[in-house]
Amino acid sequence: MLARALAAFLALPGVVAFALPITIGLAGRYPVRYPLLAGVLLVGGVFVLLWSVREFYVAGRGTLAPWAPPQRLVTGGPYRFSRNPMYIGVFAILLGWSTLWASRVLLCYAVLVLCAFYLRVLLAEEPLAARRFGGEWDAYRAHVPRWLWIF
After folding, report:
1. Predicted structure pTM score
2. What are the pLDDT digits (tens) for 28-46?
3. CA angle 78–75–139, rounded 5-degree value
4. Where would I find the H helices in 20-103?
5. Contact 134, 70 (CB under 8 A)
6. For the stretch 62-99, what's the b/e string if a residue is b when 16 or more beta carbons lie within 10 angstroms of its beta carbon?
7. Which of 24, 56, 99, 129 has its CA 20 to 30 A from that of 80?
8. Residue 9 CB partners (closer than 8 Å, separation 6+)
9. What are phi and psi of 109, to 5 degrees?
């Protein structure tokens, strides 16, 4: 299962949060503008992302990939504060890249990714969680917001 978890991490957030924005940033030859703020966003986002992935692997007995999802509902760690901390972590990383290079292109990319996350959660992930975990999901959903303190 560890190999599947690593492959899923590289294929999904590895591409979305690292490979694409770094490629865009380097190709755009943007000057570094706000390294301290960018560093806070990047480190914070990576921390939240890795903590979330770890919870999926350890507590949920699965991966972040749709082809190998957690077998148990994950409600600990960062999932105590948000039902979608992985997406929050990735969005923070993307904001970090756009801040580092003061890039409007990367900011637009971050907003588009966030919109895609929102639609995926609303249309696919939450209905699936309701079917898979039933009452346990309903109780969790009633006490933990979708993002952080909103929704």
Report:
1. 0.93
2. 998 999 999 999 999 999 9
3. 130
4. 20-27, 35-58, 85-100
5. no
6. bbbeeebbbeebbbebbbeebbbbbbbbbbbbbbbbbb
7. 99
8. 53, 63, 64
9. -60, -45
